[in-house]
TrEMBL record:
Similarity comment: family membership: Belongs to the DoxX family.
Top-level taxonomy: Bacteria, Bacillati, Bacillota, Bacilli, Bacillales
Pfam families: DoxX (PF07681)
Compartments where found: Cell membrane
Signal peptide: none
Membrane topology: Multi-pass membrane protein
Segments crossing the lipid bilayer: 5-23, 43-65, 72-93, 99-122
Protein name: DoxX family protein
InterPro entries per the UniProt record, alphabetical: DoxX, DoxX-like_oxidoreductase
GO cellular component: plasma membrane
Keywords, in A-Z order: Cell membrane, Membrane, Transmembrane, Transmembrane helix
Length: 129
């Protein structure tokens, strides 16, 4: 039970973090995020995909829906953020938060979080996602 409670806290905090980061990308219009991705040589559509993944995925984690799938998507986003943006800045002031979010996402993908998860009411086949 202690582990499930810890995973619940982790799931909710990671969900809130990604949700807020996703919503922040809309702050002042998503064009700024699209421009940032463009400056890095990444396709503009990727800015929309990442932003919506963070908002929708963040909400899903908070609610306990598709925890494993969302966590895998978040891990991929964090790997991309570390290598495309943060690595040159070094650990402190660079990729430390992204690395922690990557580790948390991997933990949730490997173990999921069932306590107070709406995913528990889904059919058995969907619960494994």
């Amino acid at each position: 039970m202690k582990t499930e409670f810890g995973l619940l806290i982790l799931r909710i905090v990671v969900g809130i973090t990604f949700l807020i980061h996703g919503l922040d990308k809309f702050n002042g219009g998503i064009e700024g995020t699209v421009g940032m991705f463009d400056d890095m040589g990444l396709p503009a559509i990727l800015a929309y995909i990442v932003t919506f993944a963070e908002v929708i995925g963040g909400l899903a984690l908070i609610l306990g829906l598709l925890t494993r799938t969302v966590s895998i998507v978040f891990a991929i986003i964090m790997i991309g953020a570390i290598y495309q943006v943060k690595l040159p800045a070094g650990f402190l002031g660079g990729y430390e938060l992204d690395l922690v979010l990557l580790a948390c996402s991997i933990m949730l993908a490997l173990s999921s979080s069932r306590l107070l998860a709406l995913g528990q009411i889904l059919p058995a086949g969907l619960r494994k996602l």
